[in-house]
Amino acid sequence: MLGGLSFPAIALLMAAGVLLDLWWGEVRRWHPLVGFGNLAIALEHRLNQGGLRFARGVLAWVLAVLPLTALAALLIWALALPAAQAVTHTLMLYFCLGLRSLREHNLPIANALAQNDLPNARRLTSYIVSRDTTSASEIELTKASAESLLENGNDAVFGTLFWFMIAGGPGAVLFRMANTLDAMWGYRTPRLLQFGCAAARIDDALNYIPARLTALSYVLLAPGLQGKRRAWQCWRTQAPAWDSPNAGPVMSSGAGALGVQLGGAAIYHGEVEYRPVLGDGPPATGADIQRAWQLVVRTTALWLAVAGAAAALMALRTLTEITHA
């Protein structure tokens, strides 16, 4: 039981949360994660100064995440009616998911590239990545979008679903807040290197299992036996060279599943950063953005199917025990 709900109920609510996200998308005003981002900015400005930057970063993380997670758990506990608990779990998951947002931010890039509208594609891509897109080519824009889709499929979807299965709505809230702080504070710049270290390491820990389940899912959903072997081989050989212990498995297996080449050089803050190559095949082109989106959608369906099957088996086992009691 979790917050008064069984795992079969949690699996059902997980599907409901995904459907709500696909139907409504992100709320345009008063989004909780936007408010949390503003809180993170205020804490960083207030605490990231003077000495003991690492300790200050730990304190900022605790102040940002733990009270809100506790509040979410307390809200679930305080609700007496199971139906109210179920609705609250579902809404918490809905606010933490970003599946439809991935589509809304990335497919317009594919459409712009299909129309040979590089200026618009560069503008749209600049909204979702921190690299410089001012003079990016079609291949560079495609790599940026596809990498974002594959990695954020884990960060904004599968990691959230994993922690929802573990701890319901409060688990999803905890994960998304931790992931948001890593995205805001986890940069290796002079200002954030020490302050954001704790946020980056905590996110690595929370994401360790979800990222590998995501990578495995990409392998399983690669087309044909050859595609699955290619995705697995890319994961095993290319992921260790990637700086991030979780992005490496996710993006290498995803690129291998798509049969394209990602990674390589990219411009960050005016300097060229030479990143390891990901995947195996020709350089990605605009049409591969749509294929990356479809891989994320199929992976979501796979996770929902596995959770549903597990819930059905648990319910059947319970029914059998009751019948033979």
UniProtKB/TrEMBL annotation:
<dbReference type="InterPro" id="IPR004485">
    <property type="entry name" value="Cobalamin_biosynth_CobD/CbiB"/>
</dbReference>
<keyword id="KW-0169">Cobalamin biosynthesis</keyword>
<keyword id="KW-0472">Membrane</keyword>
<comment type="similarity">
    <text>Belongs to the CobD/CbiB family.</text>
</comment>
<comment type="pathway">
    <text>Cofactor biosynthesis; adenosylcobalamin biosynthesis.</text>
</comment>
<dbReference type="GO" id="GO:0048472">
    <property type="term" value="F:threonine-phosphate decarboxylase activity"/>
</dbReference>
<dbReference type="Pfam" id="PF03186">
    <property type="entry name" value="CobD_Cbib"/>
</dbReference>
<keyword id="KW-1133">Transmembrane helix</keyword>
<dbReference type="GO" id="GO:0009236">
    <property type="term" value="P:cobalamin biosynthetic process"/>
</dbReference>
<feature type="transmembrane region" description="Helical">
    <location>
        <begin position="156"/>
        <end position="175"/>
    </location>
</feature>
<keyword id="KW-0812">Transmembrane</keyword>
<keyword id="KW-1003">Cell membrane</keyword>
<comment type="function">
    <text>Converts cobyric acid to cobinamide by the addition of aminopropanol on the F carboxylic group.</text>
</comment>
<feature type="transmembrane region" description="Helical">
    <location>
        <begin position="6"/>
        <end position="24"/>
    </location>
</feature>
<feature type="transmembrane region" description="Helical">
    <location>
        <begin position="58"/>
        <end position="80"/>
    </location>
</feature>
<protein>
    <recommendedName>
        <fullName>Cobalamin biosynthesis protein CobD</fullName>
    </recommendedName>
</protein>
<feature type="transmembrane region" description="Helical">
    <location>
        <begin position="301"/>
        <end position="319"/>
    </location>
</feature>
<dbReference type="GO" id="GO:0015420">
    <property type="term" value="F:ABC-type vitamin B12 transporter activity"/>
</dbReference>
<dbReference type="GO" id="GO:0005886">
    <property type="term" value="C:plasma membrane"/>
</dbReference>
